[in-house]
What does this fold into?
Amino acid sequence: MNLPEREIVVVGSANIDLVTRVHRCPKPGESLIGRSFMTVTGGKGANQAVAAARLGAKTTFIGCVGHDAFGAMQRQGLADAGVDVTYLKTHPTEPTGTAVILVADEGQNAIVVTPAANSGLLPEDIIEIEPLIAGADAVLLQLEIPLITVEKTLDIARKHSVLSVLDAGPAQAVPAALLAKADLVSPNETEAEALTGIAVASLDDARRAAEQLRAAGAPEVVMKLGARGALYLGDEEIYATAFKVEVVDTTAAGDAFTAALALAWNALPKRPALRFANAAGALAATVPGAQPSMPHRDAVQRLLDQVAS
Ligand code: RIB
It folds into this structure.
């Protein structure tokens, strides 16, 4: 796959993930014994930055961590992955964001995020890096930082005609006006339901949700459908099937997908771009943890070569 050199700016959250593997998620009021515990670097923004860098993009991450050991761990993890952390802020008082994650035996997860320092990423931080955004090929955002910061970033990207990709996670209702400011909006099934009220259990549901998002102003929509693949809706409709892999942990699989999408969008035709994103997402689900599971470009290429399109 011939992808040109791409420069990506990721504006988003950085968390440390406290992950317990469980046989199944507990019911309210129930205590369970976990199988194992690990502490790994995560956060939708930082995950996507690591994925973009491992997939070959020159990547800069804009975020905010605490003045603590978790913040240092995150900064080091990003730098080790080749991400430029020049503009990663340190919050003077708030601790680094955390995510408490339960991963059940079948690979599904439940996540509670405490944003903490992530709340300190503000519109003025984005105004300061306007020239960086203006020179990028794409800006990648999620919804784990203040929405006013997301909005400011989208405004600046549009002002400079830079592709903006909005990952609509974590699930929440956001104003239609915000969706309209992004070039490409990408929710998973749960996020699509939070945005549209449509429960996405089939391809038809996904199509209806995507149509509703477009009617609300989102110019183009890519629905992440997990084991069912991905659905694009814009001036045409494209459905791309998923790659079959042995799922170990789906945490951050969507992050790998969206990063790959931002890298390939406008650089490849839409169908191969969706396939590239599906391959990256699938590989992420085969490895435990968030950032540890973000795939490298050569692994994605091998999977693409193994499975005929
Ligand atoms: O998308 C997965 C991520 O969501 C985790 O790494 C966690 O930190 C939360 O942000």
User: Anything to note?
Assistant: The chain has a mean pLDDT of 97. The domain at 44-63+122-306 is CATH 3.40.1190.20 (UDP-N-acetylmuramoyl-L-alanine:D-glutamate ligase). The first helix runs from residue 44 to 54. The pocket of alpha-D-ribofuranose is lined by residues 13, 15, 17, 42-44, 47, 99, 111, 113, 144, 251-252, 254-255, 290 (CB under 6 Å).
